[in-house]
Amino acid sequence: MAVVAAMGTTIIFLSSCGCLYLLLLFINFFNKVWWTPIRIQSALHSQGVKGPSYRFLHGNLKEIINLRKEAMSSPTELCHQSFSRIQPHVYLWSKLHGKNFFWWKGSQAQLVVYETEQIKVVLNNKDGNYLKPEVQPYLKKLFGDGLVTTRGEKWFKLRKVANHAFHGESFKDMIPEMVSSVEMMLGRWKDHRGKEIEVFQDFKVLTSEIISRTAFGSSYLEGQQIFEILTRMVLIFSKNLFKMRIPGIGKLVKTQDDIQSEKLGQLIRNSVIKMIKKREAAMADWQEKVRNEILELFGQQNPSLEGISRLKTMSMVINESLRLYPPVVGLLREVKKGTKLGNLIIPEKMEVHVPSLALHHDPQIWGDDVHLFKPDRFAEGVAKATKNNISAFLPFGMGPRNCVGMNFAYNEIKITLSMILQRYRITLSPNYVHSPVLVLAICPQHGLQVTIKAV
């Protein structure tokens, strides 16, 4: 009887512990998905900051998905009013609630800040209170454990290494590789003079080729598998960008996308290691203005590092293109501890969203011609173009976590454009359909068809 009683007592104790554990889990879950969001919403409302109401579990994700579906349901006319199409939720809610508003990504609040002085504080992060938030699992698999995803001391060490790799002296060795890659692409174009060609795919291959050559001493064909895998992972990430994931469930139950992205991530790692081991073993008037500048500087010679730094007109065209279609449409930071931003008191762990695309299309900053392609707005530099609000132009971010490859990207664009315009006059094909979409970065939904004619 004593043994039976002891067993009964043990069972009751274990059952009580189990019930208590489940109760604590429920309380923690309820606090995260209901009490905390309602508390944050009330705190922001009391400061005059408005936004769409919180919905249990999914926040505003369903609204965003519906707005995006509606915006993408048909192509647009050939104009540069891309903001309302690519980020319809930010466009709509900024009209309804003002330029500083908040919305809900599930149970996570995001404060959207437009004011340029506040943006400087957030991105320069001098007090260390605005951190890069933890990235989504799919994004972690896409970018790995590198500069984009790491924080703290590890990020600092990686950034130091990257700064050295992208230093001006290092570019000198990269220029011949960039030139060779562009020459290969132009060689393929020779058979298509006077005909339509699809250049979006060509430019993707070119960028991949240049990265392969400069980073791995390889070629696009050798690294083709990696770039094809990356493309598949980008599609998985884009598909899941606004899907609701219940906190904690992802660790227990894996979706088909989870399983596929893990397999793709392993394939990328294996391919990169294989490549490293192998290496160890062995606009028409503006177009004319830019072309004239190129011919004046280089003639028919290949561009040089010293020469591309003097391409002022081309720099204006590039900056205006990056203003209208920035590679990154928004920047996120997570508040380390409760802090004051301007007149706002922001709760701990809240995310702050800097809407780059919205800033780039703000008529109060750029004028009523904000949706027109006018490179001459950058004739006297970024500060003059932004009316001394340099944080209103963020194609590569700002502050200590700005894009380390910014100069590399500018040089690649300048070399590519120089070599193309030395040889060809480019016009849009009648078959081109203007339909910019967001797939991690902004890209043409139906490709980019142009016609090339020898100069």
From TrEMBL:
Pfam families: p450. It comes from the Eukaryota. GO terms for cellular component: membrane. It is a single-pass membrane protein. Signal peptide: none annotated. The keyword Iron applies. Its cofactor is heme. GO terms for molecular function: heme binding; iron ion binding; monooxygenase activity; oxidoreductase activity, acting on paired donors, with incorporation or reduction of molecular oxygen. Heme binds at residue 403. This is Cytochrome P450 family protein.
